[in-house]
Design brief:
Length: 213
Amino acid sequence: MQHIRLEEENIKTAVTRAAEVLRAGGVILYPTDTLYGLGADAFSDAAFQRICEIKDRDERRPIHAVFESLAMAEAYAEISPLGRRLAEAFLPGPLTLVFKKKPSVTTGIGHNLSSIGVRIPKSKFCLALAHEFGKPYTTTSANMSGAEPPATFEGIIKQLGGNTELIDLAVEGGALPAYLRSTVVDVRGDEPHVLREGAISSAEILKAAKVGL
């Protein structure tokens, strides 16, 4: 596993290397604006299965993806008016929007699911990587399924144990806020349905959903 310590002056170098790994079907460990995540080509079946293997995660459970923008997400998801309002209010930021998946999306994280989770983190590295890679990549917490995600790089390596051998590149970005998760909101209908409350409160979501109505 290659290891890069992320600094302001080497973001471009780290992004270039991470994109090379994603294009080759590999997996990266990387920092977001909330937790550390495991990244791979979101719509590659083999890459998706590898992520599930690292986490010991049921393949039937949804995994979300990082997009550079809603414009990129439009190729994969049906962007609802409600989703656009919440995106304008909170993105980039710690919010995952669950949209209806386009019928043509059938591989990777889109296999056997009717929805797709869109994440646009407030992170220079994450957004630059989405731009460089040119496609979405997975964002799922770097932890064993069912266990609390560690806030430190060292804690993640310890928890994943031998499964780290399946990670090609680790981008270390220092300690992140402990247990801070993105808020996940289903925006397929006219009203927001908060699936998981995280950094953004349900009250904030409901208030933003009414703006412009």
